[in-house]
Amino acid sequence: MIRVNQVKLDIFEKKNQIEDKLAKKLRVKKDDIVKYEIFKESIDARRKKIKFNYSVDVEVRNEEKIIKKGKFKKSPSYCYEKIEGKLDKKIRPIIVGAGPSGLFNALILAQSGYQPIIIEQGEPVEKRVKAIDKFWNEGILNERSNVQFGEGGAGTFSDGKLTTRIKDPRCRKVLREFIQCGAPDEILYKNKPHIGTDRLRGVIINLRKKIESLGGTFRFNTKVMDLIINDEIIKGVVLEGAEELLSPVVVLAIGHSSRDLFEKLDSKNVSIESKPFAIGVRIEHPQQMIDENQYGSPMLRGKLGAAEYKLTYQSASRGVYSFCMCPGGEVVAASSEKGTVVTNGMSRYKRDEENSNAAILVTVQPSDYGDSSPLAGMYFQRNLEEKAFKCAGENYNAPATLLGDYLNDELSETFGEIKASYKPGVTFVNFNDLLPEYINEPIKKALKYFDQKITGFAREDAVLTGIETRSSSPIRIIRDKETYESKNIKGLFPCGEGAGYAGGIMSSAVDGINVAEKIMLMK
């Protein structure tokens, strides 16, 4: 096939007109086009004359003749090829965690003839939904099964975003597997694909069933209490009730909130280090305002979907940026420990709620943690989350404030036009007292700067809800760059976001695939 770029359609042209555009660009008759498929779709909004911009792979008669002219090239192809493993297939790898990295690690192993055992302390999606709803509506937290823990990981109760900066061709493998499990076909070519938390739940269930059909075993509601390590070689894990599960291969596909396990790793002298991450707040605006700013008219939402944004600002040595922007979504309670408040954002597939929200985050460094311990960042997170819980009433309400009050060091008692979407509820709190000054100052500067990019971004009645602390892992489990094994424990494979090697669904899933490949090449 031939790759044809810069195929543009006006937003009111129908997609089947792509064929006409292709024929014109290739200088062939429409009848010479055998078939085509969209490789990538993006939106060109420059000069406010909005168009869809496509890269298209085309099968056409006389292909070689067209290529010889030099204007078009063959489409780069990618087909994931199974690795013929050297590892004995009688060995059953143990995978700790059923988030994206754990699931795709298990899938690749299972597709290659292995029978992995996946250990997950939380519940399967069907039950997990009920536990989370109970927390959101009644303030009753299940510390084992919540937004952070359970089948699918934290991304299952976010937006199902599949955007990533990595260029690994394995991304296509991940997308195709999601589609086979029920995700919409469009994720394969959309510039900013998302599944939506409502549809992702069903996709995760189908992915689990696929792994099981290939010989994988899931053990939910099962917590890893300890690692069995002899002479710096992994032998297996200890589960609740003192059950020992033995294997010479253990994958730590744990999430960024696996604090009990982080402490256990540190006590076992597994090589870990503190790393930077980011903290901040969630900001809510009317989605209509964002649509109008990004598209020029809110009427285009029907054609283009709910508008997104991505903003960055540099304040001295600290970067400030928007993160996990959820168009037409809501702010959700994401605590995993009692006595803490943590926020996150969530959108469903249609993204049709009244508000947009995004985290506004500030980078923090190990030098901010006040301790040189590898776990200092984790305790730094926890202290802020406990402070947020206490100041908001100790009932899992989240601290909230109006943007204008935040900038002016004031405190209101009522909302303006924009209402907070967070459940169980919010309590008005002065964020100048909640967050340290080295966080507040950069955020305030950034909000004013972002207002120059999106009119109304710093409007006085925009709602800030906090706090956002779980954007990435505060630690890294150090691994060998070639084998991906732990630096000092043979057979132990740190993997994904919690281990410090990914950020988001796509990069975590790809890291899971990479680790599976390394495992299969073990002798």
Spell out the blueprint of helices and strands:
Blueprint: E1 2-10, H1 18-26, E2 33-44, E3 51-60, H2 63-68, E4 73-74, E5 94-96, H3 100-111, E6 117-119, H4 125-138, H5 170-180, H6 197-213, E7 217-219, E8 224-230, E9 233-239, E10 244-246, E11 250-252, H7 259-267, E12 272-274, E13 277-286, H8 287-295, H9 301-304, E14 312-315, E15 318-326, E16 330-333, E17 343-346, E18 355-364, H10 376-391, E19 398-402, H11 403-408, E20 426-428, H12 431-434, H13 437-453, E21 463-468, E22 475-477, E23 492-494, H14 505-520
Parallel strand pairs: 5-6, 5-11, 6-7, 11-23, 19-20
Antiparallel strand pairs: 1-3, 1-4, 2-3, 8-9, 9-10, 12-22, 13-18, 13-21, 14-15, 15-18, 16-17, 19-21
Helix pairs in contact: 3-6, 3-14
The CATH class name of the largest domain reads Alpha Beta
- Helicity level: 25-40%
Largest sheet, described in full?
Answer: 7 strands, mixed
The CATH homologous superfamily of the largest domain is called: FAD/NAD(P)-binding domain
CATH fold naming of the largest domain: FAD/NAD(P)-binding domain
Number of domains: 3
Q: What does it look like?
A:
This protein has 523 residues and is of the alpha+beta class. A hairpin with a 6-residue loop joins strand 2 (33-44) and strand 3 (51-60). It has helices at 18-26, 63-68, 100-111, 125-138, 170-180, 197-213, 259-267, 287-295, 301-304, 376-391, 403-408, 431-434, 437-453, 505-520; strands spanning 2-10, 33-44, 51-60, 73-74, 94-96, 117-119, 217-219, 224-230, 233-239, 244-246, 250-252, 272-274, 277-286, 312-315, 318-326, 330-333, 343-346, 355-364, 398-402, 426-428, 463-468, 475-477, 492-494. It has 3 domains: 2-74, Alpha-Beta Plaits, CATH 3.30.70.2700; 94-272 and 476-520, FAD/NAD(P)-binding domain, CATH 3.50.50; 276-468, no CATH class. It starts with a strand and ends with a helix. It contains 14 helices and 23 strands.
